[in-house]
Design a protein that fits this description.
Layout lengths: L2 H11 L7 E4 L4 E4 H18 L11 H4 L1 E3 L2 E11 L12 E3 H13 L5 E11 L4 H10 L6 E10 L1 H6 L4 E4 L4 E3 L11 H6 L24 H26 L3 H6 L4 E3 L1 H5 L5 E2 L2 H12 L29 H9 L4 E5 L2 H13 L6 E5 L1 H5 L3 H17 L7 H8 L4 H14 L4 H6 L24 H14 L13
Parallel strand pairs: 4-5, 4-6, 6-7, 7-8, 7-9, 8-11, 12-13
Antiparallel strand pairs: 1-2, 3-4, 9-10
Length: 481
């Protein structure tokens, strides 16, 4: 355990074992039993203040037991993680119990005054027991409210498993994330005891009752059984991270339980952004409340965005807004081809909404359109647009009309082109694509006027043209002012 944890524990049990002081190896400091007891007493007061605030208290809200700032509930994950640490919602004695995280998470999810949840992490990890039960509950609630894990110094092993349950993860530049692995230890003291003239005899019933005891060497069959248990726990851990982070299990295993620092954690796909705790908190508060945080310089390294998802000068709350709009949606039906549905499903998955099923309805089949009439209408519309000097049509739009492409496929093509030019998923979901990311039109002004054609005017023309070609699926749309 950490020295600070040991100091608090020894403050309670030290007198029973005649402990007079604790030597802290980091700086060689010596802490006397009096100070240890004082630290333990202070910690005990804090524990007692919230020890009854657990999931069995329906009379309490998150605002009663958690720090709720501007609609965002803060859940602290500190120190070593254990299955149980007395209930309540706060870390105590340097430990955080999974029962505490579960209680805090439940309060935050149930309280209607909470619009977002920030999980504030600084922990090296902890026990396997009850971890998978906790993350299963957190994953089941995913999407109900925006969530962000903010890793301070370290979020490793079991702490990283908790972080992965959130919609996104940030880490400080010098912070650490990862350690997706499982470990246990067997100590064999038999040689030391023999040298000291001590012989231990274990008397037991059941051949495996004393398996793994420290007074004899570890038999091969017992070692194999322990390894099998470790492998099973590891598989569960890997599967959880792969699902939560949208990675393949092979990619997760390829990390080989390494701990990655800052930008390297982004490159490994384990976190989304490198940000200070203060900036990450401010950005999340702004996103949850529909405000604009201070724009950041975009950085493109890694498998996922490492800073703001918005382009410079644009609002950075697009992703959070999209999350709120799409939260709770399990399926979509579009008017278009199956290829359109597949492309849309892929785009949604890339944006973190892989659970939404997308199906397609063939507009042409429902409309019973006549092929010859449709072709003739295309020819007529193209001829009219060529004759009108005030009509502006991009090369991509002309190709779409000539080829009979439907509106859904054309929209996906525009989005794909914009993304290739540097637009992020947040831009595409919010429609915040920059002018220099749009397909070239070949013209940039109204003929004879010298005035730049606005996006709204272009959108009006495109929608009118789509409607004239029978694309009723866009009839409900209107251009932004």
């Amino acid at each position: 355990m950490l020295p600070s944890t040991a100091a608090i524990v020894l403050g309670v049990v030290g007198p029973r074992f005649d402990v007079s002081q604790l030597l802290l190896h980091a700086g060689g400091d010596q802490v006397g039993i009096g100070e240890l007891q004082q630290r333990a007493a202070t910690e005990r007061l804090q524990i007692e203040a919230r020890q009854n605030a657990d999931g069995r208290r329906p009379d309490l809200n998150a605002t009663d037991v958690l720090l709720v700032q501007d609609g965002v509930a803060h859940i602290d994950v500190r120190g070593e993680l254990v299955a149980e640490n007395g209930g309540g919602v706060s870390p105590s004695s340097g430990f955080t119990g999974y029962d505490a995280v579960m209680a805090a998470w439940g309060f935050a999810q149930r309280d209607t005054n909470v619009r977002g949840i920030a999980v504030d992490i600084n922990s090296p990890g902890g026990e396997v027991d009850d971890l998978m039960e906790l993350v299963a509950v957190m994953m089941a609630d995913r999407g109900k409210k925006p969530t962000r894990a903010i890793i301070r110094g370290v979020g490793a092993s079991a702490a990283y498993a908790i972080a992965a349950c959130c919609d996104e993860i940030t880490v400080q530049d010098l912070g650490f994330a990862g350690s997706v692995g499982v470990i246990c230890m067997h100590a064999d003291f038999s040689a030391q005891l023999e040298q000291e003239g001590v012989k231990v005899t274990l008397i037991h019933a059941g051949a495996h009752k004393a398996d793994g005891n420290p007074f004899e060497a570890l038999p091969d069959d017992v070692r194999a059984e322990i390894q099998a248990r470790i492998d099973h726990s590891y598989s569960r851990f890997v599967a959880h991270v792969a699902t939560a982070r949208g990675m393949s299990e092979d990619a997760v295993r390829a990390t080989e339980a390494r701990v990655f620092q800052g930008e390297d954690a982004v490159k490994a796909g384990l976190v989304d952004k490198v940000m200070s705790w203060r900036d990450s908190q401010a950005e999340f508060l702004a996103a949850v409340n529909g405000r604009q945080a201070n724009p950041k310089r975009p950085r493109t390294s890694g498998n996922r965005a490492s800073m703001e998802t918005a382009m410079p000068g644009e609002p950075d709350n697009a992703s959070a807004a999209a999350s709120q709009v799409l939260a709770g949606i399990t399926s979509m039906t579009i008017v278009g081809t199956s290829a359109n549905a597949t492309a849309l499903a892929t785009a949604l998955a890339a944006g973190g909404f892989g659970d939404i099923a997308v199906t397609a309805v063939d507009a042409a089949a429902g409309a019973g359109a006549n092929t010859e009439a449709t072709t003739a209408e295309r020819t007529r519309v193209l001829a009219l647009t060529d004759l009108c000097p005030e009509t502006i049509m991009s090369a991509s739009l002309r190709a779409a009309i000539e080829g009979g492409q439907d509106a859904g496929a054309f929209a996906i093509g525009l989005a794909t082109a914009a993304k290739t030019r540097g637009a992020t998923m947040g831009d595409l979901r919010a429609g915040a694509v920059q002018p220099d990311q749009l397909p070239e039109t070949g013209k940039d002004a109204k003929a004879g006027t010298g005035k730049t054609v606005t996006g709204a005017e272009q959108a009006t023309g495109i929608l009118a043209l789509a409607a004239s070609l029978g694309h009723r699926s866009v009839a409900h749309l209107k251009p932004a002012g």
